[in-house]
Write a structure and sequence with these properties.
It is globular, with a radius of gyration of 27 Å. It has about 300 residues and is an alpha/beta fold. Helices cover about 45% and strands about 15% of the residues.
């Protein structure tokens, strides 16, 4: 046993369950760490593909489009006036064009429908329609539903996004989420606020949740973990770099790992103790022996 475990070898318990623990030599442990790091970086890159850029706050169009392509973002949200140029910049990529029509929402439904048809002809695959604030404030949901249906018919197979421009009461937002689902919208878009992910519970018929105005990595991570399908942010590049740097600098073992640096015969006794506990746990699971309270591992680091 002493020959097997040389000085300063590292033993890593790769699973919180002792019975399924795997003990690695230094070389194998380093390879495992590299694998975990690559996996984390891949997860970060995948999460960012759910984000969406925006051209609504005076951002440089060329830079936004180039970064969207490099990050493989889902789409770019753009006004109708910038649609043609954005289309040229994104030519050949998988980044979709999401055109916002109807200004701030206080526009006639027939005007919104006209702009939506024009945007689709110009190449937009997604159409964002702000709900009319005055109707929403007055809870005139029947009129809102009727106008949105008209726009849905006008854009054909393009994806409709029903957008709420400001934060309302949870009841009003939930009601609007159900209307968006009923008319066949692809997304229900709301500004970010703590707990906004709970609106997913009101969405049916394949309608997904989009959150706008995300500014920080922590918020982005939280929304991703909560299952929000589309996150609109003009900070995607900064979020990606910070998150990727965090993944690269992450601890070499996860929070469930147990690492002991031992030497000589101490390494042998340490490993033997691990194996004894693992064997007892396995026997207990199989019902071969009575199961006392699970033993705790007391490892003395020398």
């Amino acid at each position: 046993m002493d020959k097997q475990f040389q000085q300063d070898d590292v033993f890593t318990k790769a699973n919180v369950d002792v019975a399924s623990g795997v003990f690695l030599t230094s070389k194998d442990a380093e390879e495992f760490r590299a694998y975990k790091r690559r996996k984390k970086m891949t997860e970060v890159a995948l999460a960012v593909t759910r984000s969406q850029g925006s051209l609504y706050n005076g951002e440089d169009l060329q830079r936004v489009c180039e970064r969207a392509i490099r990050l493989r973002q889902a789409a770019i949200k753009t006004p109708l006036s910038k649609l043609d140029e954005a289309k040229k910049r994104l030519a050949g990529s998988f980044v979709r064009l999401d055109c916002v029509v109807g200004g701030d929402g206080e526009t006639l439904d027939k005007v919104k429908a006209y702009e939506a048809r024009l945007a689709v002809k110009k190449g937009a695959k997604e159409i964002t329609v702000p709900v009319t604030p005055s109707l929403f404030d007055a809870a005139r949901y029947t009129e809102l539903r009727k106008g949105l249906k008209k726009i849905k018919r006008a854009i054909g197979k393009a994806t409709l996004k029903v957008r709420v421009e400001k934060i309302y009461s949870p009841t009003a937002l939930s009601r609007m989420a159900r209307i968006a689902s009923e008319i066949g919208a692809g997304y229900y878009s709301v500004p970010y606020f703590p707990g906004c992910e709970r609106l997913r519970l009101d969405l049916t018929k394949g309608c997904l949740l989009e959150t706008t105005g995300v500014e920080t990595k922590e918020t982005f991570q939280t929304l991703t973990e909560k299952g929000v399908e589309r996150i609109v942010t003009d900070k995607a590049w900064e979020i990606y770099n910070d998150w990727m740097r965090e993944a690269q600098d992450a601890p070499l073992t996860d929070k469930n790992a147990v690492v002991a640096t031992t030497s000589g015969s101490d390494a042998s006794s340490c490993a033997t103790k691990f194996l004894e506990i693992a064997e007892k746990t396995n026997q207990a699971k199989k019902g071969e022996t009575p199961t006392p309270r699970q033993e705790k591992m007391d490892i003395k680091l020398l």
